[in-house]
Write a structure and sequence with these properties.
The chain is built from 15 helices and no strands. It is an all-alpha fold and about 425 residues long. It has one domain. Helix 5 (about 115-145) packs antiparallel against helix 6, helix 5 (about 115-145) runs parallel beside helix 7 and helix 9 packs across helix 13 (about 355-360). It comes from Devosia pacifica. It is found in: Cell membrane.
């Protein structure tokens, strides 16, 4: 019931990092497989489906995943096991129930739409409840410091399930269409979310006997989660804004090429997301200890590790970029200039490390939301202006510039609310755990 020992948490964090590296390779392989087996227009449709599904999925847990990272470490440190159990039960009921209602609404909406768009809306609606369970339980696992559980089911098992199933269906002679792949994706999400729920049920058995949650306590969690919902939603919209916009502005084939460039670069992006798994809980513990010096040390260490590992990863990916893009098909090599520009934007974002997580766990959701909203507006305006003239290169330019704006704004906001620095170009040290 107590917090795991620091050595176990560090081991979990290291394993989670290794699994995110493996995940980047698995997802890349899955995208290559789909691009090879599906017609170009269908693959472009799948990119649109997947991106919108993940973007909407971040809203499906209603901010309770991020609230788990904020509240659970503090409750565990202070021995409030009843509050832990109450939060877990309440959060699961709200996120799952709300997502089911949203999914039902999506199914209804799909009946009034024609063509491929109807199919995309239907699959998004069917996948929302399972995504809600995944997002919420991932947040709970991060709150406990169970970093392997945050990574293995969603980022390792799910792409393997999807890829193996699609490959088997292709071997059996089935035509790999958007409808077939969408069905496989939703079924894989259902299997993974069910497995996560069962595992968490077993691991959290001691907390299920907690007392009933009072209305004021539940209201506190909900009121804290709603701003986090806005922030997490904006964060995902910033992440996927470029693909979402070009899916409306460019032909499906061009969308597929741009997405392939972004997927190749995701081989380097694992650094940022692996550090993200660990950072929020570390910052929450530092805030609970009211140790400003340790908090700044954690922030700077996180930023240095993120930036320099990202430099290495982006440089390595860029060096073999044409080869990796060629794996999708010769037409996809045209995405290499966009990939390089996106890589520069990734470096700009890495300078800030995981400082945005500090704003969330520190209760500064309003400032985080304003920062992300400004970044999103910048990205949208630049993409809409540049894409008609420069195509996918314009989308990459808009995204890269928006990442520079994001880092500048986050650095200023964090210094203002917490009085700590977040940007440092010094090499990281490894004497302390993140």
């Amino acid at each position: 019931m107590s917090d795991a020992p620091a050595s176990n948490n560090l081991l979990d964090a290291g394993l989670a990092f290794a699994m995110r590296v493996a995940s980047a390779g698995l997802v890349f392989g899955l995208q290559v497989l789909l691009a090879r087996l599906m017609p170009n227009s269908d693959y472009g449709g799948f990119v649109t489906l997947w991106t919108w599904m993940i973007a909407f999925g971040s809203f499906s847990a209603f901010g309770l995943a991020e609230a788990g990272v904020r509240f659970l470490p503090r409750y565990l440190v202070r021995g409030r096991s009843s509050a832990v159990g109450g939060f877990i039960r309440t959060g699961f009921a709200i996120s799952t129930g709300g997502a089911v209602l949203l999914g039902a609404l999506g199914v209804l909406v799909s009946r009034f739409i024609d063509g491929e768009a109807a199919l995309i809306v239907l699959f998004i609606a069917l996948g929302l409840p399972f995504l809600a369970i995944e997002f919420y339980l991932e947040g709970v696992a991060r709150g406990f410091g169970w970093y392997r559980l945050t990574t293995l089911p969603v980022y390792i098992v799910r792409p393997i399930l999807i890829g193996a199933t699609v490959a088997a269906l292709a071997a059996l002679g089935f035509e790999i269409t958007l409808a077939l792949v969408g069905t496989v994706v939703v079924v894989a999400m259902a299997c993974v979310s069910a497995a996560m729920a069962l595992i968490m049920r077993i691991k959290l058995a001691d907390f299920h006997r907690a007392a009933a949650v009072s209305r004021p306590q539940a209201r506190l969690w909900i009121m804290a989660a709603l701003p986090l919902l806005l922030v997490s939603g904006l964060e995902d919209l910033v992440t996927y804004c470029d693909v979402l916009l070009i899916s409306l502005l460019l032909p499906a084939e061009q969308v597929g090429i741009y997405f392939a460039a972004a997927r190749v670069l995701a081989l380097a992006n694992f650094v940022y997301f692996a550090m993200y798994l660990v950072a929020g809980r570390r910052f929450a513990l530092d805030l609970a200890a009211r140790d400003k010096a340790r908090l700044e040390s954690s922030l700077l260490q996180s930023s240095r590790l993120t930036f320099w590992l990202t430099v290495v990863a982006v440089a390595g990916t860029a060096a073999i970029g044409p080869v990796l893009l060629g794996a999708f098909g010769q037409a996809f090599v045209a995405g290499y200039p966009a990939m390089l520009i996106l890589g520069a934007g990734m470096l700009a974002r890495a300078l800030a490390g995981q400082a945005s997580e500090l704003l969330l766990v520190g209760g500064h959701q309003r400032q985080a939301a304003l920062t992300l909203a400004a970044t999103l507006c910048c990205n949208v305006v630049l993409t809409v202006l540049l894409v008609p003239f420069f195509g996918i290169v314009g989308a990459a330019l808009g995204t890269a510039i928006a990442m520079v704006v994001r880092t500048v704004l986050i650095a200023r906001v964090v210094h203002k609310v917490s009085g700590v620095r977040i940007v440092s170009l010094r090499l990281p040290t490894f004497s302390t755990a993140i």
